[in-house]
Design goal:
By secondary structure, chain B is an all-alpha fold. Chain B has helices at about 10-30, 35-55, 65-90. Chain B is about 60% helix and about 0% strand. In chain B, about 30% of the residues are buried. By secondary structure, chain C is an all-alpha fold. Chain C has a single domain, classed as Cytochrome C Oxidase, Chain A (Up-down Bundle). The longest helix of chain C has about 35 residues, at about 255-290. Classes of the chains: A mainly alpha, B mainly alpha, C mainly alpha. The interface between A and C is large, with 49 and 55 residues.
Amino acid sequence: MSAVIREPSDVAPAPYVAHHFDDAEQQFEASTLGMWIFLATEVLFFGGALSAFAYYYWQNADAFEAASNHLDLVAGTINTAVLLSSSLSMVLAVHAAQTAGRGRQIFWLLVTFALGAAFLGIKTYEYAHKFHEGLVPGPFFRYAGPNAPQHEMFISFYFALTGLHALHMIIGLGIMGTLTVLSWRGWFSPAYFTPVEVSGLYWHFVDIVWIFLFPLLYLLGRH
Amino acid sequence: MTAHVTSPRTYVFVFVALIALTALTVTAAQIDLGWMNAVVALAIATLKAFLVVTFFMGLRFSSFVSRVWLLAAVAFVLLLLGGSLDDLFTRHTATYLPYEQMDGAVPGIGLDGLPTRPAH
Amino acid sequence: MAVTAFDSRPDPSVTFGAVHPGTNYLNANYGVRSWLFTKDHKRIAILYLVTITIMFAVGGLAALAIRLELLTPAGDLVGDDTYNKLFTLHGVVMVFFFLIPAIPAVLGNFALPLMIGARDLAFPRLNLLSWYVFVVAALFTTYAMLTGGVDTGWTFYTPYSTEASNTNVTTAGLGIFISGFSSILTGLNFLVTIHRMRAPGMTWTRLPLFAWGLYATSIIFILGTPVIAITVLLVALERTLHLGIFDPALGGDPILFQHLFWFYSHPAVYIMILPAMGVTSELITCFSRNKIFGYHFIAASSVAIALLGFLVWGHHMFVSGQSVHASLVFSFLSFFVAIPSAVKVFNWTATLYKGSITFETPMLYALGFIGLFTIGGLTGLFLAAIGVDVHVHDTYFIVAHFHYIMVGATLMGYLGGLHYWFPKITGRMYPENLARVAAFLVFIGFNLTFFPQFVLGYLGMPRRYHVYPDEFQVLNVLSTAGASILGVGYLLPFLYFLWAFRYGAFASANPWHSSGLEWTTPSPPPTENFDVTPVVTNDPYEYPAYVPPRK
């Protein structure tokens, strides 16, 4: 591990640099490292749930694959495209913070917000449909086909995994909203865009979780 | 502040690649490849994640430590999965003997697991 | 900001005065708001100290009730269900709300920035947030315990916890889930601080070993805590929303729960011990006036313990129905994880060799740590052997083993660290002779409490039972007697620390003549820690070059 030896400077850092940091560079590096470490915890959080899913999948591969066909492939695919688009708009928002004024920043942040909201809207539609069909875990589960317990297990995982993902999306929307307000107040510039960068990392991570959830939940049984 | 500004063109290219990979994975899922379906799906997902991490999240510009943490997290998820699957897969390869069968199973050890005394 | 270079060895000709003539972090501003909205890591450490002491008292009262019940073979003091709730309360509170946060959140928060020459942790507001999250979690869990309790044991095994238990599993589980965020934020803060905020000249190989211990602990915070979070969340979701992940009727596997649970909960015990080991390194060097023997090995062994500790979780599951093959693998790996711990014990012992040893209270606790940790660790090796574990699993042998580590080692490390840094934290000295008496009471009381439990377990008394055969009574009575002595031993520091905070003798900047950057600041330090950023030019623990005048 190499040493980061920072020579303290005699110049007072800019006002957006917190007092315990030596300079903006240290603050930026600390913030991005902090976010990557936080994302590591999220990898393990979802990873634990996915490990449980994989464990049961190995025991019930056929039943899980059959249960996967309950899910709406079109909705899932559209949602994947929506999230990928939101990642694009997010990096463009970071780019705008790095290079442009708040007009473009706000535009791309709002696009990201809208796409995230669209994702949640489609998800709500999917959930409502599931409730309607009785594919809800618990006492109201109804499925007339074979291997009903395994189907209910799969549906439990579906709701647990996509529900946790949706919760992270909602938090992400809150972050986007906050960033939009801060951008409007002129906080971000090429000299200081750390919160946008760091929020972008979070947003992309939530997208990556969906990149894995989509095939594991929607695509296993399509053949 | 040193920051790596990637051009929007790169981002759009990566986005198009991600959409193409999504289409690919949906198509591949509908072809029956047996157990390879899961492998292909996960491989494509991993590639998409790699693209997002490298280009959208800028990990190639980030510090070595950040990359170590991400890899460590993935490695430890695989460790959890590996350990529990190892248990699952080997559940029926060796079993403890039922109590009734223990007497005489190991020479000199009785039902209580203790050495039998030779009869006087 | 001007830079002066000075090395971290204390200069006896410079006195900082009994109390810093200017303001320090305690009197910088007054009022509840200045404490509740502070960003100063030292004040946050005090906030944690208060909360953790309260939680220790809660867990301790449960222990008192348990030991009183176990005085007699019959279940006469409390009923069966109540007893289940008592040991669950004791376990949950002590593990999640005392042992895991104590040294990192109190001593680590206070000392880490000072030790590495930083003005604060990397994310002061996240630090404060971690305390608030901890308080919310503690309230949640205490509420769950007080309004009916939980009777599953702190291990929450399914399907009892998901299906059959009609107690406050969900609320307590959510409390534990929230406390996990507190751990993660603390760990994140420590990691980024150590990576990015060391003073000039403070290279990785000049880091104090307490910092290395906190670094290794933070690795486990980050990689382990999320797994217990998802596990406890899935249990809560199953109880509330009927997401039947562990439901046997849907194919749910109780062993899967145990894999998920122990994947965190085994590394969690290394969260508890690694900071205490770091404290011990500081204390052994200071009070034997010796450079640490094998600095690189101790630093590397901290990280090795953190990483190897993730490979052995299945040794809690030898009798659960886990496959023989997996059990053998975990048993084999469990022997390996003892090696780095042994390296430390040998190195501390070698540090003592030809040292100039004095027996101030912190040193008493450190020496007690080494002895009791060795016993606890060796009995852990016994348990790593499947043949032994099958016989003593779920008996008092296990209880004794982990209490030797958690109480005999971690808690003594915590007390040793509190005594050592007390003058720095408060600017006062605690009463030394009374503290030594308390340390002896703790040591004697501890051994009287828990050594009989090794015998009890070996003789076959199961854990979590409050009714037992008559022949076990003598040992149980001894254990309870020890527990009362231990309780007095814990009560004394609580009282004399409070007394000393107000009436104790004023402490100089470096009353122990210790090396380390934190001892170059006044006692108590000013809010910004250092008037000028220190530049480090020498290795830690360079004691033989400086011998203090003896009184």
